[in-house]
Amino acid sequence: MSSHEAPLGPKHRLVQQARLLARERREREAAGLAHMEGVRLVEEALAAGVEVAYLLYSPDLAERPRGAELLCAASARGVPLYRATPEALERAADTQTPQGVVGVFRPRPWALDDLGPGLVLVLDNLQDPGNLGTVVRTLEALGGGGAVVAGGVDPYNPKVVRGAMGSLFRLPVVKLGLDAALRGLRARGRRIYVADAGGALSPWEATLTRAAVVIGNEGAGPSPLARQEADGVVSIPMVGPTESLNAGVAAALMVYEALRQQA
Amino acid sequence: MSSHEAPLGPKHRLVQQARLLARERREREAAGLAHMEGVRLVEEALAAGVEVAYLLYSPDLAERPRGAELLCAASARGVPLYRATPEALERAADTQTPQGVVGVFRPRPWALDDLGPGLVLVLDNLQDPGNLGTVVRTLEALGGGGAVVAGGVDPYNPKVVRGAMGSLFRLPVVKLGLDAALRGLRARGRRIYVADAGGALSPWEATLTRAAVVIGNEGAGPSPLARQEADGVVSIPMVGPTESLNAGVAAALMVYEALRQQA
Description:
- The structure is a homodimer.
- Chain A is an alpha/beta fold.
- Helix content of chain A is 37%, strand content 19%.
- The first copy, chain A, has 2 domains: 13-106, CATH 3.30.1330.30; 112-262, SPOUT methyltransferase, trefoil knot domain (Alpha/beta knot).
- The first copy, chain A, has helices at 13-23, 25-31, 39-47, 65-76, 86-92, 129-141, 158-163, 178-187, 224-229, 247-262, and strands at 34-37, 51-57, 81-83, 101-106, 120-126, 146-152, 173-175, 191-195, 211-215, 232-234.
- In chain A, strands 7-6-5-9-8-10 form a 6-stranded parallel β-sheet, with helices on both faces.
- At the A-B interface, helix 6 and helix 10 of A face helix 6 and helix 10 of B.
- Chains A, B: Pfam families: MRM3-like_sub_bind, SpoU_methylase.
């Protein structure tokens, strides 16, 4: 932390690795590592007990009280800390304002048995990282049991990590194929619904406690397998001429309805 | 439409005006005009009977069937059509892919009496155009009565227009100060709730039929006036350690709950 060595430059191996982890899904999956940045997110990761591989920070971070506290907390957990030049930090960052700190962490390898008792959302080929981030944040806030990501955007895409605002460090998010996910959830006693237009049930008619709901791709909707395997199709009644809700909104309404039924 | 004149160049007055309307709120408010782009949005505006001041289009738009149909429909309504060079269209556009057409329209001057019977959301100094666009889309889809925009982001910001996906051409969206909005809504027989943490009521305990709900600013929450004037504070019960929901999600949950109570 109070290293006497020169700060890392933009060509240092760890700076390059952080940059790649922010940009390349393949790199994240091969290394089992992911990228985060900003004081708030790194604080949340440490508080959640996430394994942080290392932090890169700007020399002035330690001069701000909150920054100094962060470095202290990371150091106490044995996280390797590296000062980096402003150019190196910019290179390692995903946004233009990484707020003085970029981190590399090891996502937990969640499994179906880690899911909590609340509603589980199965995200069937979701494409928009902003949607996925909001879904994870909303699931945690409203007491959902977790998410299964079946294809589509990588849950450790930096935009998802930012959008989830720390929830991704705490909520079980399982990566699994759709078929295995549906069979595994049913074997664990969950009723499977799929959210889609033209279904027989409104959300308040479905029993969403002890259930999983499949949310389909933003354009194509749920895949045929999901429709075929589901115990029922749940539709949010559309009053206006709009064709569909934003996938993140549709997901949030399901989690809300499950919470209401529980209460 | 099959004009023999040369297409408009990037310095033409209408191209410059469209560009300014996309970028400057002051220009929109001074002229009472707004900006839209893309085949789908312009189709929705025409279908909704919105007054379109003019369209700028690329020469190749007329060669695509859907583009030709669009120009034909606009022409039948007496909308002035101007071919523009690709450079001019790019200059007039807000995004990098305006899909061959940029339009200028005159938003309807909605008033409180135009609001429908469904739930009304009062957006108290909302800042994020993406949030506002989603809120307008969700309100229309779930049968809300409309929105009152009390300060914050301009509802005719091009990002809101895009995010609302056509709903902004149909749903009543009233621009009004918070004080006048709350008094006017109450005078029209609506109960006023404010969505905030620590309230006495969960959404399913509040009577959201014939009501208005104030949704606060993304960072600061609802303003003191809203808290003071409201008949009750509605809180979405938070289970996880997350501090708050995304404002667009919170708004969507209220409209959903009103729809459920109605049904």
